[in-house]
Every structure is written in structure tokens, then in C-alpha cells.
Design goal:
The protein is of the alpha/beta class. About 40% of the residues lie in helices and about 20% in strands. Helix 5 (about 155-170) crosses helix 8 (about 225-235).
């Protein structure tokens, strides 16, 4: 009897041990493994120093350093969207932010590397802002005829939209105005010194260059009404990415005095190339989404990044790495 008890006890112990092994293997399989963050070097093209691209890009760089400490991120300033798209398409940068109309224009023109461009995330909207001195008699885009107007640097997204807006208003950008190539870094100063009569700016709200100008110089915004946006849509092509909207009264409180301003908006995309490592892109996409509130505390536009809409990167197909991330967080 004692022998039978010992045999049964031995079998029970062996069974328990086997159970613990199976349980341990199951636990190992179910629990996520700690994955080593990707390293290496990437180049990120941003924008002008006084613009939102540069501010937001700087915030993203800090987020990447926190999440991927072995990744060296080299930041490049640029003239804006058109230059950014070209840099990524031709391999001079790996990631960038650019407006959807600039991306579509590059693709429609069939420029080098256009077929390799891929989307990572839809970020926030740029708002077109037409700025004049507060006492200016300019009340519409049509009133710019014969005026000195900054339409943005040649490779900027501002230039792309400004030319289209002027054309929609019946003006020839090369003949009916005296054009200047200032961006947000130099346009406010020129306006304040009386060297130009108006300048176009397309950027997130609020843009620091205009926030600073508001502290020392009284200016106002010229409305871009919905009828003009309709005429833009009639141009076809990349103009389909413009939507009529209102700049909220909270954008520049001391300037708008509680009033909204009719204008147009276009979405910004974080983008890369097809050949960029999917694992790196997945990590980077996660970092962009997770850093929203932290960056948003300093750059208002970052607060508008939304996981529910980030996946819509038209006119770009999602990069495989970005798609992998969105699938992993899908409810």
C-alpha cells in the first residue's frame, strides 16, 4: 500500500512539474517581448525657422530620441512643402511634412521618385493667411492688383497656393502684382517696415512668426471666401485638396478681436519613401501618435493629430511600416 502511494505521489509531482513548464511556455508566448528600438541615421526635412513645420519637427526629434535612443535624427530646414517632397522623393531626406496639394502636384508632374512616395500619418491642417497692415485698404484678393505682395519662396507650399489663389481671383501672379519671395521668417518684418503691402502665409495655427508680429505691429487678415475656393476647385488637379473653412477666433486673439476669418485649409502629411525600413517606420509612427499631447503643450497644431484620421494619407499609399502600426492598435 505504501509503495502504491509513493508511485502515485511521484506521478503527481511529475504532472505538476509538467504543468508548470506548459504554463511557463504559454505565459512566454502570450506576453509581448521587449523589442530593441531601431537605430541608425535618418534625415528629417522640416521648414523655415519661424514656421510650424520646424517647431513640430523639433518636437518630433525629441520624441524620437526618447523612444529610439540609438537613432540619430538629422534635421534640415527648408523652404517648405515643395522642397520637402522633392527631397524625400530623390533620397535627400528620409521623412518630412508636406501639404497634400504639394504632394499631388509632384505626382501629377511625374517628377523623379514620385512613385516611391509613401504616407506615414495625416497630421493637421494648414490655413492660408493673407496678412495686411490694419489700416490697409485691401479688402479682398482682387484688391492686390498693382500691390507689392510676398507669395512665398519658390519651393514653398505657400507659393503653390498663392499662385492658384491669385489666378482664381483673375490676377496674373507675374504681371498684376509685384511679387516678392519672402516666407514667414522675413515677410512680417518687410510688412512692418512698409516694404511690401501684403504677404501670403500657409501654416498651422497659430504660427509663431505671426504671434510675434502681433506683439509689435497692428495687422489684420484679408478673407478668402468660399466662392474663391470654388473657383480654385474648377482649376482641377491638386486644387481638390483645398477646403473652405474659417480661421477660428482663438488663433490670434489680439488681432481677430473675437471674429473668425474665411479662408481655405489643406491637410499636412508625414511622409517617407517605399524603401525606408518598415520596422523603423512602424516605431516612428507609434512615436508620432504617442507624443501628441507632449508636443501639443508647446505646438498647438500637434494637438490635432488624431489616431482615427492619421491613417488617411491621400494622395499617398500608406507605408507598410505605418500600416503595421495602425493594425496593431485597431480596436
Amino acid at each position: 500500500m505504501l509503495k502504491v502511494f509513493r508511485i502515485r505521489r511521484r506521478h503527481a509531482l511529475m504532472g505538476s512539474a509538467a504543468g508548470f513548464v506548459v504554463f511557463g511556455l504559454l505565459l512566454w508566448w502570450l506576453l509581448p517581448l521587449e523589442e530593441e528600438p531601431p537605430g541608425g541615421t535618418i534625415t528629417f526635412s522640416t521648414g523655415t525657422p519661424a514656421g510650424v513645420y520646424q517647431q513640430y519637427g523639433s518636437g518630433l526629434s525629441s520624441a524620437f530620441a526618447k523612444d529610439m535612443p540609438n537613432l540619430d535624427v538629422r534635421m534640415l530646414t527648408s523652404q517648405g512643402s515643395q522642397e520637402n517632397v522633392r527631397r524625400v522623393a530623390t533620397g535627400k531626406a528620409d521623412f518630412t511634412i508636406a501639404a497634400a496639394d504639394a504632394v499631388e502636384t509632384y505626382k501629377l508632374q511625374g517628377l523623379p521618385g514620385a512613385d516611391r512616395l509613401r504616407g506615414v500619418a495625416r497630421l493637421y491642417d494648414d490655413y492660408m493667411q493673407l496678412v495686411v497692415p490694419r489700416d490697409s485698404k485691401i479688402g479682398s484678393v482682387g484688391d492686390l492688383r498693382g500691390k507689392r505682395v510676398s507669395i512665398g519662396p519658390e519651393s514653398s507650399g505657400v507659393r503653390l497656393i498663392a499662385d492658384k489663389i491669385l489666378t482664381a481671383a483673375g490676377l496674373d501672379p507675374a504681371k498684376d502684382i509685384t511679387p516678392f519671395a519672402d516666407g514667414i521668417s522675413t515677410g512680417p518684418g518687410r510688412l512692418q517696415r512698409g516694404q511690401i503691402d501684403a504677404f501670403f502665409w500657409s501654416g498651422g495655427l497659430p504660427t509663431n512668426g505671426l504671434v510675434q508680429l502681433a506683439k509689435t505691429f497692428p495687422f489684420r487678415f484679408v478673407p478668402i471666401d468660399a466662392d474663391l475656393v470654388t473657383k480654385l476647385h474648377e482649376q482641377g488637379g491638386a486644387s481638390r485638396y483645398y477646403r473652405a473653412t474659417n480661421m477660428p477666433e482663438s488663433a490670434y486673439p489680439s488681432i481677430q478681436d473675437g471674429s473668425t476669418v474665411a479662408t481655405l485649409a489643406v491637410s499636412n502629411l508625414l511622409m517617407t519613401r517605399e524603401d525606408v525600413d518598415p520596422r523603423l517606420t512602424e516605431w516612428l509612427t507609434r512615436s508620432v501618435i504617442n507624443s501628441r499631447d507632449r508636443i501639443g503643450a508647446h505646438v498647438h497644431s500637434a494637438q490635432l493629430v488624431d489616431l482615427r484620421t492619421a491613417i488617411y494619407t491621400d494622395p499617398l499609399t500608406l507605408h507598410d511600416g505605418a500600416r503595421r502600426y495602425y493594425r496593431s492598435v485597431k480596436p
